[in-house]
Design goal:
single chain, alpha/beta, D-Maltodextrin-Binding Protein, domain 2, 2 domains, 10-stranded mixed sheet, 19 helices, 40% helix, globular, disordered N terminus, Chitin_NgcE
């Protein structure tokens, strides 16, 4: 098994900074770059900007209306309403709030018509194409927000309170115009109580997982389930597993759509073959290919399956069907063998839940101020309490009594230390990962496609996107 000692010190520092483990003064070497242009508008051009002061550093005009569109999915939208209530008290308006799961369909016409809402939580399956909006210059540059003082400590800028990976992930070219609010832990979720009651141990390696699945199946329970209607959920695990075994450098080649990045990486072959083996041995709950994310989670919480690929929002989203003694937990990525480039404990944990402020909204300054309120310790803790999820505010939950799933996620992040992975492919090219590769994964998990064909097709699709001039391209430094 490899270790972090295989990386030279410079690379380790770069990676640690990119993943949010250490703070560094400059992030220039880590910035994602869009060759298709960038967008955003600086603070000086924001509409309805008033006078600034110590208590109002962004210059919010009192009494000016503010409109917020919040994705109402696994995290709900009450946490946003709570922050809006504080905004209301300070600036004398009632924020016009819309909670929805159809952000894109409802807002595409409004962006096209030049009357978008001010602040948007752009998440869910039907989200807006942020890459395109940024390239068109429709997103507000959030640099002023990053440089504004924190509500908790005026001597600290907002940027200094965040995991630095937040700064990397939110950039298009040289403009920071997407703010990722949540800090999500992706991985294999399970009931700690169930494993304990059955005498099963969470597997350390891929081989151990296959062996345990055999035991689980004999007991009459399915080892795995997944949302076949949205097979890209499986990628939350699959992609990170490839990076853990093959190394971050080789994964970054995949993020960058480099030629032969899929086909020349031995870790891709090992991981995709692992999933093909699970399918061939019948280790997925029968009918999973027809389940939504809610249905797969419900089957899991009701004990029909032991493992589920998901993100840390699952604790809140599955709460209505989760038994009180379920003791939800998440485990680290599995070892592939002695040649692994990253050690046991490696985890995918990264900023998520993207917020954007519309440059052409009526009150973009107010949109940035609402984000500043959300980034206070008060509201970061409220988020953890309300939706059982971490935020990108470092140390916000220190000393809090956390729910089982959130506690497990926080412990996994701590144990992961410098070995936290961030996967950009799904963020940069969702049509590639969610539609094209998702279709391949669907066939792989039903046994209708061999691993070799999956890899061949994945490379073919990646090459097509790389050559498509209509697709905004990004680059990540290794």
């Amino acid at each position: 098994m490899g270790s972090t000692s295989e990386f030279n010190r410079r690379d380790l520092v770069k990676r640690a900074a990119a993943l949010g483990i250490i703070a560094v003064p400059a992030m220039g070497t880590l910035s994602a770059c869009a060759t298709g242009g960038g967008g955003g508008n600086g603070d000086n051009g924001a509409k309805n900007k008033g006078a600034t002061s110590a208590k109002n550093p962004l210059g919010v005009k009192k009494g000016v209306a503010l409109e917020a569109f919040i994705f109402k999915g696994g995290l709900g939208d009450q946490y946003a309403k709570d922050a809006e209530a504080d905004y209301d008290k300070t600036y004398g308006v009632t924020v016009k709030h819309t909670g929805t799961q159809q952000v894109g369909p409802k807002l595409q016409p409004r962006f096209a018509g030049g009357n978008p809402p001010d602040i948007i939580d752009n998440s869910g399956a039907d989200h807006l194409d942020m890459n395109k909006l940024s390239a068109q210059g429709q997103l507000q540059d959030l640099a002023a927000l990053l440089d504004a003082p924190s509500l908790d400590d005026p001597k600290k800028k907002i940027r200094d309170t965040l995991y630095p990976s937040t700064l990397e992930k939110g950039k298009h070219k040289d403009v920071f115009d997407v703010f990722y609010y949540a800090f999500t832990v992706y991985g294999t979720w399970y009931s700690h109580k169930l494993l304990k009651d059955k005498g099963w141990e969470y597997p350390t390696s891929l081989d151990d997982m296959v062996k345990l699945c055999g035991e689980i199946k004999k007991s009459g329970v399915a080892p795995w389930t997944y949302p076949g209607k949205y097979p890209y959920y499986v990628h939350f695990n699959m992609f990170a597993q490839i990076a853990k075994i093959g190394g971050l450098d080789k994964w970054i080649a995949i993020d960058n759509l480099e030629p032969k990045a899929w086909t020349s990486n031995d870790a891709v072959k090992q991981v995709v073959e692992h999933y093909a083996e699970l399918a061939a041995k019948g280790y997925f709950l029968q009918g999973s290919q027809g389940l939504t994310h809610i249905q797969s989670q419900t089957a899991w919480t009701r004990g029909k399956a032991v493992f589920l690929p998901n993100g840390s929002w699952v604790e809140n989203e599955a709460a209505p069907t989760t038994p009180k003694d379920f003791d939800m937990a998440v485990g680290p990525l599995f070892n592939g063998g002695s040649g692994d480039k990253m050690p046991h404990g490696t985890l995918r944990a990264e900023p998520s839940e993207p917020f954007i402020v519309a440059k052409d909204g009526k009150n973009p300054v107010g949109g940035m101020e609402l984000l500043r309120i959300l980034l206070s310790k008060k509201h970061a803790q409220n988020f953890a309490t309300k939706v059982r999820s971490l935020t990108t505010v470092q140390g916000a939950t220190d000393g809090m009594q956390l729910s089982p799933g959130l506690s497990s996620a926080a412990e996994a992040v701590k144990a992961g230390g410098q070995n936290l992975l961030m996967i950009q492919l799904q963020e940069w090219y969702p049509k590639l990962t969610d539609e094209k590769l998702g279709g391949l994964t669907s066939q792989l998990l039903t046994g209708d496609m061999k691993a070799a064909e999956w890899i061949k097709k994945a490379q073919q699709y990646a090459d097509e996107f790389a050559k498509d001039d209509s697709v905004t391209k990004f680059h990540r430094e290794a």
